[in-house]
Amino acid sequence: EVQLVESGGDLVQPGGSLRLSCAASGFTFSNSWMNWVRQTPGKGLEWVANIKEDGSKRNYVDSVKGRFTISRDNAKNSLFLHMDSLRVEDTAVYYCATPFGGSWHQWGQGTLVTVSS
Amino acid sequence: DIQMTQSPSAMSASIGDRVTITCRASQGINNDLVWFHQKPGKVPKRLIYSASSLQSGVPSRFSGSGSGTEFTLTISSLQPEDFATYYCLQRNSHPFTFGGGTKVEIK
Q: Exposed (0-12), middle (13-18) or buried (19+): which is B76, by Cβ within 10 Å?
């Protein structure tokens, strides 16, 4: 069974940093692009970033470029999102997700990041 | 960036109704379009990928069509469990972008 379990969400002050983790199991993690998606409470979905299977290519939404870094550890089947210079508008539930195309697809349960003073 | 315009933003429908939701891309995205729905407090669930491929386990009353810039999600006969918010996503080019969502409510 494919499982994605996020962790690391917390309450942090504006300007602070946080690292989110996503533990993957049930599939060959090292063969999959991986995504981070966020959802502001009560609002819509926003794709945040993704990373190629071997970590050699990373893409970001403009609003997080230069502040967020996506990374992965294929030996530990883990995906990360390091977030610096956090802003109030980064407050959201953050989900990790497998590639959106292809015959199967999975999201984690999400982890809540709250940026507030 | 590719903008995804989803319509309507909300709608009321009855059990058994045929429901159509549209997503329009600001530029051509081939068939790189995915549909999700999300119930309150739940994780989004993929319904359709590659514009018209039905996700395994999703009821056949859901169908997707379109290519290029115009895409449609159709529910042939709305069921009680289908009341949710529906989103499209383009995965043709980075940054990937979601539509604004369509909330389907009970009439």
A: middle
